[in-house]
Amino acid sequence: MIHPTAEVSEKAKIGEGTRIWHQAQVREGVTIGKNCNIGKGVYIDNDVSIGDNCKIQNYACVYHGAKVEDDVFIGPGVIITNDRHPRAFLWDTSRVGKTLIEEGASLGANSTIVCGVTIGKYAMVGAGSVVTRNIPAYTLAYGNPARLKKAIDKNGNG
């Protein structure tokens, strides 16, 4: 299901059962797996890879250089950046940083993920956090900058 107001490139690959809602934009070269939910106003930049069973909530932005594995939750307003040292007059694709969001991770509302980091399996990032370094698997991190707070299990309990 692709809402009529969504802009989805003909060069994007969308998996079976995936729903793309109002005013979302999915650029060329994007791959989105099966049974995903892409919320209103979400922006997915060119060549981004999204796994199966992911939920990307309203107004999140996932920029070029990001890879999102299966079962990832991306809360509303999350930004995954792609240039650690942005300068408009220097931009070219060689500046794109690689970011990996591993299986089952959750990114809380309005968090910012600075490019070049890995968010580990089933890790959780608290709402409003700014992630500037890797977050290990099965941990909770939050704050600005995000700091590790405790170990958690697959369900987020610590």
Please explain how this structure is put together.
- The protein has 158 residues and is an all-beta fold.
- It has one domain (7-151): 3 Solenoid (UDP N-Acetylglucosamine Acyltransferase, domain 1), CATH 2.160.10.10.
- The protein is built from no helices and 21 strands.
- The chain has strands at residues 7-8, 13-14, 19-20, 25-26, 31-32, 37-38, 43-44, 49-50, 55-56, 61-62, 66-68, 73-74, 79-80, 99-101, 106-107, 112-113, 118-119, 124-125, 130-131, 139-143, 146-151.
- An eight-stranded mixed sheet has the order 3-6-9-12-15-18-20-21, with no helix packed on it.
- A hairpin with a 2-residue loop joins β20 and β21.
- The mean pLDDT is 96.
C-alpha termini separation: 37 Å
Detail the poorly predicted runs: none
Question: If you compute it from the alpha carbons, what radius of gyration comes out, rounded to the nearest whole angstrom?
Answer: 15 Å
Assigned CATH superfamily: Hexapeptide repeat proteins
N to C succession of SSEs:
EEEEEEEEEEEEEEEEEEEEE
DSSP strand content: 25-35%
Looking at the overall shape, the CATH architecture is 3 Solenoid
Q: Please estimate the helix content.
A: under 10%
What oligomerization state is this entry in?
single chain
- Strand tally, please? 21
Strands side by side in the biggest sheet: 3-6-9-12-15-18-20-21
Q: Largest sheet at a glance?
A: 8 strands, mixed
Reported by name, the CATH topology is UDP N-Acetylglucosamine Acyltransferase, domain 1
H/I helix tally: 0
Shape: globular
The CATH top-level class label:
Mainly Beta
For the record, the count of structural domains works out to 1
Which class of secondary structure composition applies to the elements?
Answer: mainly beta
Mean pLDDT reading: 96
